[in-house]
Design a protein that fits this description.
By secondary structure, the chain is α+β, with helices and mostly antiparallel strands. The protein folds into two domains: 98 residues, no CATH class; 34 residues, no CATH class. The protein has three helices and ten strands; from the N terminus they run H-E-E-E-E-E-E-E-E-E-E-H-H. The N terminus is likely disordered.
Amino acid sequence: MKLAACLLALCVAAQAETVPRSTIRVGVWTLWHDHEAIVTPVPEATLRECESCRAHGLRSITLRAEGAGLTWTEQDGQTHSASVILLAGSYRLDAHGESLRLAWPLKITAQHGALLLVATLPIESYVELAVAAESGAADSPESRRRWRWWRAALR
């Protein structure tokens, strides 16, 4: 009886692992160890300080990592702190001389005084971005044709 229960539990666990995921978490600017970034809503985004916290409309903020915590300053000078920031909507990140516009949920934490940015996006979008980043003018016409076919198939 115990053996049957264990086998049933293993089968259920194995079945749960085979369910395909529709999203993927991806680190943003992982080669950089930014201590500060500017976040601007484009045109609007929300900010939460925890999973169950109420969302607030995001205004342009300057975000800093301090040890394992975060502080941010709004345009009016108000300063806030938290251990995590969750962004949703459409927003722009500016840091280390680069700018990046995102429209996926973003989780921001800090570790050793550096910002950790993790976006959650659909797997199809990730594949499209990864392939586009690896493609270029030097690709053969056949390669570009196949890429256009895959891109259309993913939509």
